[in-house]
Amino acid sequence: MENIDSQVNKGIYIKVYKVQNETLVAACDAELIGKTLREGEIEFKISKEFYGDIIGDEELLKKHLMHATIANLVGERAVKCGIELGIIDEENVIKIAGIPHAQFALL
User: How many CB atoms are closer than 10 A to CB 94?
Assistant: First the structure.
């Protein structure tokens, strides 16, 4: 039986925001929560306040992303979900301190 630490380390934090007609899905690989990525002038904080509501897996994230009008994804697993759904183009993924980050918006 897996312990909670191993579930967190394989999981994805997901938070859904609904504002008017927009649905923002913020998601990050669970082990990144609370970290700050630094590269050159960039300082990117991965805060629990923004990304951390529920902890789920790739399938749960994909279900939420199918309804998203905006997405903010950080980490290998979270970004991979966006690519697999076809909402993120691989060439638009940036890396900050080696960690993938991608955003999506329906216009």
Answer: 12
pTM, two decimals, is 0.90
State both tokens at 61.
């994230």
- Only one residue has tokens 């997405």, namely 71
Condensed to tens digits (0 to 9), the pLDDT of residues 30-40 reads 999 999 999 99
DSSP per-residue string spanning the chain: ---HHHHHHH-EEEEEEEETTEEEEEEEEGGGTT-EEEETTEEEE--HHHH-SEEE-HHHHHHHHTT-SEEEEESHHHHHHHHHHTSS-GGG-EEETTEEEEEEE--
Domain ranges of the chain: 4-105
What token pair was written down for 9? 């380390």
CATH number of the 4-105 domain? 3.30.1860.10
